[in-house]
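Supplementary Methods, section 5.1.

A reviewer requested that the exact input to the structure prediction be made available. We therefore reproduce it here, unchanged from the version used in the analyses.
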Amino acid sequence: MSTTNKITWPFVKSRLKDIWRVIFPLFYAIAIAFVGFWAFWRNDQGRDFFIGMLEHDFTVSYVISSVIGLTVWCLSLWYTARIVSRIKGIDYIDPEFAAKIIKWLPRGLGIFPIILYGGALISVFLDNQQLQRIGIVLPLGTLIGLGLLLFSFFVQRRWIAEKLNVPLEPDKVRFKPGPTDVKDILANKVTRNVIYAILILALLFLLLFLMPIEAGFARWLKPATVVLSGFAFITICLASFIALTNFRMSPWGAVAVLFMILFSRWNDNSKLRRVMDEAPVRQTIEQNLLGWLRARSLLNNDSIKHQKDTVFPIILIAAEGGGIRALNWTALILQRAGTIYPDFMNHVYAISGVSGGGVGSVFYNTYLRDSLSGEPTFKSPFAGSENFKNAISADFLSDVTGALLFPESVQRLLFFPVEYFNRDRKLEDSWSYAYKKNLKLESMEEPFLQIWLKDTSYRYRIPNLLINGVMAESGQKTITSNLDIRQDTSHAFDDDIDVIHTLGYDIPIKTAASLCSRFPLITSGGLLCRNGEDPMGHIIDGGYKENTGIETLWQFMIALRPHLRDIQSANPNLHLPVYLLFIQNSQDPNRGEADSLKPQKTLPDLLTVPLGFIKAWDRRTPTFKAISEKVLNQSELTRVYKYFHIGIKKDSVHLPLGWYLSEMARNDILAQAEQLNPTDSIFLKLRNP
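The structure derived from this sequence is encoded token-by-token as follows.
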């Protein structure tokens, strides 16, 4: 095409068309790059990666793993973009201009991950004053050096090849705008060997991430590097698919996609684990309440009957969701409360947990059971306490992320389920592994109901659990509990699904913990089957329905009320007030936000729907708190009920929502938990009920 130096609209239009034609087949690489931007810049868990990196002064292991992950992703973006550009080349208006784009665009894509990574590192450094004392020169200098090295390689590759006597194709062939057949590309020995090396590398990564979590490969890489490696793997897979299919000329690419959709009908690998063929008989709420009160010598006690008044508060705890932040905050508050007020757990009757709050409740109940059983780990209470803190703050993200990006990617291509590939099992296993590593016990592998039944002499010293999930297919709440809520005479739980009853068998403790914390897409729904055989639906994170756990306690209070009334009628001197304690793991929204609101202007018909859902979801916690406060503390019900609240503050240190905690975040949560003291309202009320 003949062109002139004068810039005219036809000239600009032709350039834009050529740029678009080069970019179009590379949209897979651009899309992955933008996902990387969200993962490291916009996602609070991703930003916590860099806090973890900086606070450890950029250790050698982190340098090695980060450099490996970044290098692999950079090279995969660059080289796949080059190959796909050659294979997918189409007619261009100005072949010379198109050749320049084909030459330089892959090079830009090849260093984009380093720019992204370095920018996120600087952003986190500037946003956290606590990190200002730590030097950023070494990590940033390492990234700059890596970027310059890789870019120099991209630009000087021909010169390097000549020095090494490696034959390369001429530039007019390598950057030719027109399409090149795959066979012609593979005919070149160097190109063929590089492509084979890339495919072997992808296979190697897949095999490494198939290893059990005890191997520790994912945790050695650390979450950020796992994500980088996963991006490289997905890049190679997508590039291979795009290179080998031609949607315009052949139906096989579309057929492959349709088959993947069809396979999804049979390859669901999320079926829940089982540990017993038949679940033990569970107590009803009434049976358990009577046994709990007898264990405290509150029933059939002649000394109480002759006293003027005996007041024994019953505490119900709601543990809000919030990933590993909620896990740590819930478990640490429960542990701390039992330390500063030794009789505290004697009053705690049940815990309703959602998402991370539910996981923290399960961790603590298991820890409490083990400490009561006199296991060797707890010979020194201090050692057991410190080991427990290490267990709940371990890296739970690396293995589940690795499973999501590697084995689960393969599962989508199969027409049958491979349960070992399921990423939720990796998350469950990481909880169990952390508990075993730090407390030297395999308790999380045991059946869920064994928390209360392993030694019935202390079954009533361990709080009952109500683990809240949601049945995705119906929107019903699912409850995993040691209590048989189906026998509730008040019918408060009639619309809820009793997981243990539905399954007909018991599940591992670690699986029970996951049934409130399956937040897609990082994790998947758990397939619930009637009697273990008939698929019913998928249990997802309880926070989709109600994230505080308070709703379930309202139902539980309704179920308890007739039994408490009968007990107190038969024992007039015995008073059993119910205290609702809310362990909040989120920050209250700004109540004055409405004063500064501005309407959604861009695509309001489309964007106000998800925006409204997200904002309304955030507002549920203050609503449930306010209702509980008004009804239980500011009405005639205050004679028999009371509401208390313990909340976490997130304004000083970044506290992520995922399954990984930097040491700074961990220490902040621990410090806040340590601030709980005997003068807090609930402990004062327990002393003077």
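The first strand starts at residue 310 and ends at 311. These observations are discussed further in the main text.
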